[in-house]
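Now for our specimen.

. . .
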Amino acid sequence: MALWPVQRSLSRGFPALAALGAPLRRLSTAAAPRRVKHVVLGGGVSGGYAMAQFARLGVRDVLLVGAEPVAPYERPALSKGYLAPENPARLPGFHTCVGTGGEAHDEAWYNTGDWFEPSPLKLGAAATEVDLNAKQLTLDTGEVIEYEQLLVATGSHAVNPYGDTALCVRSEADAANLVAKFNELVSEGSPVGDPGPKLRTSVAEPASPNEAPNVSIDTTVAIIGGGLLGVELAGALSVRCDDITLLCRGEALLEGVVQVPPGAAEDLNTAAGADLVFNAAIDTVQPNLCHDSPRAARRYRLTGAGISVTADLVVAAVGASPASELVASQLELTPTGRILTDARCRTSDPSVFAAGDVAALPDCDLPLVNVTHARNSAEIAVHNMAGMTSSYEPVLHAYSRISNRNGGYNWMTSGFAVHLENTVQFRCVDGNNSELLAFWTGTADFPGEIVIHGAFIGAQRVVLNGTHGLTLQEMLFKPLHEVETLIQSRFEGDSEEECRVWKRVDP
């Protein structure tokens, strides 16, 4: 208020000085940067587990910046429980840290508990610039955040070369959109397919560009991608629709993701209810040009070398790219665009740490894009940000829970093994029609020892749901023959009627 009379009097005799009054007044009211000791950039799994670790360590001066409008949540639910036809997972039920047996940390947990300084969340605000030299973040709201230490936990972006004609599942909003469109199909009475044995076929390379496709398919839902996300989505949607087609670019499912005996992943996924098409390189997804019925007008045509597919709904699960663009020119990256860290999750800038999908460890070319890596690397990063010294050793496994048509789940987990010669495969089927397919594999470095562990233990407790479940301590880092003996003794005397049957299957 005091500026206005001064500015008016200046304007009468000194118009040039009056012109300076407005910018001076605006500068005087501009918000100062918010100063926070620790900033977590990213509201995904790593961000949520990092905040929980800060709380456990009593570190209060922390701010999480997340582009999504909700507190961090367990993303694996999006391709599993979120798509369930009965009692589907919905927020706030799967906020972090329920995935490891903890409580759901919704916004109230952050804001009303005595864990942090006031306002520890900045949600629905995307960072548009990160200046590591100035130690500043600029948000799309215009707000500037100054930090002492930064944890980059931005995760990854879904790769979608097909644009609006194919859905992706990377966020809760994406999953909600998929559910809405899938429910619309089901309510309209779209064909649900044949519940019998599922198709397995392979696309042959055409002799010439003009040759007719050797594989032509009409399906309700087409899922492009044969990785973990693709097989999880196919299993989850097949509970309500038997007309699911999974289009795999390679010659087998899960290529480059896990090493399992030939055919094992295909057996499990076919049982879950999807037709499988291999060597299916889909180049384009376009609206259907045939409009001879209302349904035809809403369908899509997928084309590639040797293949043509018509579908009501298309989902792309063809991979992800690390979300490192904000710091790409300021930090050392791997050839794939991930932020290179040391064993303490520290980057080439000593005040910047990285965790989760966006981070990579030196001399480790394994695909560490899984929820266990996201959780564990975040916790180790926070330990070191808080002044402790902890080193991160990644768990070299991947696992998946695939819904099946019988209303249960098939579990699959595998280690990233160097050799498969010593693989021992176990199957377990329980009374809920759930199956656990697990692989213990000796490697060149650790011959005869268990490669997979932590995630499998959690799966087993769910599948068996009884007192026979083996604990982590009983299994971890024990020789293979001891584990076999332990399993056999634990389940000795169980009858098939009790639905706890273990069978060794030689590869």
Notes: The first strand starts at residue 34 and ends at 41. Residues 172-187 form the longest helix (16 residues). The CA atoms of residues 74 and 96 lie 6 Å apart.
